[in-house]
Design a protein that fits this description.
275 residues; alpha/beta; nine-stranded mixed β-sheet; 30% helix
């Protein structure tokens, strides 16, 4: 980095690396003060572990930043006596971690689905229960995601990799993709006004490699790495936290993102194959 105190963004374009401290030079269709970035976290600590430096960079350059935490952490207990209390413990730890990162409290959205169970929450269904994930008389990931997209109206959306080992990560990715399609249309009007445009999409890695090589690298000063590591320490109920910290420190002051194209089927693109 030319300036050790500056956030530097790098992007590969047709094999050529471009870099700048000015986000408008790197992030396509930059909207200035209208930029809104939404980071999706299958579990409370996935954002800070998978793309915490990118998250901090968004806050540092003044982007309106939001986080959606999909599950409640109830399967994250490491001791038998935590089995009934771990969800409440992890919510407190999550709130403390994001506060440390500098996220406004109102921009942290808990969606309350059971940890380790997102495969059963695919789609949308009417629901007259008092479960915390019920919104406008319905539940399911697509219900919650459409509501969140229409509420936040992001210009950029950050998701866990579709190749990730953890099923909750995969379902967060795939259910969000169809939710983007729903959110831009008139379906389910009780969930808010349709979004005007599809956000730019990016995947971050946690457990597994990205599907294809990354095209964006975010480089930050040392103090931002330390802030990321300290915010991971907030999850002190997770007894493997030292191993996570060690791995994150090895990764250093750089993070990598894969740009994803929202690619709807266009029949006319197939025609040349048969000419």
């Amino acid at each position: 980095m030319k300036d050790s105190k500056q956030v530097l963004f790098q992007r590969l374009v047709e094999g050529r690396r471009i870099e700048s401290g000015n986000p408008a030079d790197i992030w396509p269709d930059w909207r200035g003060k209208d930029e809104s970035w939404l980071f999706m976290s299958p579990h409370d600590d996935d954002i800070v572990c998978g793309c915490g430096l990118t998250f901090l960079s968004a806050l540092k350059i003044g982007v309106k930043t939001s986080a959606g935490v999909v599950t409640n952490g109830k399967m994250g207990y490491c001791r038998p006596e935590q089995k009934e209390t771990i969800a409440a413990i992890r919510r407190e730890e999550c709130a403390a971690s994001f506060k440390m990162l500098g996220l406004p409290e109102e921009n942290l959205h808990f969606l309350h689905y059971d940890d380790g169970n997102l495969n059963r929450q695919a789609g949308r269904r009417f629901d007259d229960s008092d479960a915390p994930y019920v919104i406008a008389g319905a539940s399911g990931l697509q219900n919650s995601f459409v509501w969140l997209l229409r509420k936040v109206r992001p210009t950029r959306l950050f998701l866990p990799s579709v190749t990730d080992l953890h099923p909750d990560h995969k379902f967060t990715n795939t259910e969000m993709m169809i939710s983007i399609f729903h959110a831009q249309g008139g379906i389910w009007p009780e969930l808010g006004e349709p979004i005007a445009e599809i956000p730019h999409l990016y995947e971050y890695a946690t457990y597994s490699n990205l599907l294809t090589p990354p095209s964006i690298r975010v480089c930050v000063p040392d103090e931002m790495l330390e802030l990321k590591l300290n915010s991971i320490y907030a999850y002190k109920s997770q007894e493997q936290i030292e191993l996570t910290i060690e791995m994150q420190r090895r990764g250093g002051t750089k993070e990598y993102l894969r740009e994803v194209r929202f690619d709807l089927f266009e029949p006319e693109k197939c025609a040349p194959l048969f000419e």
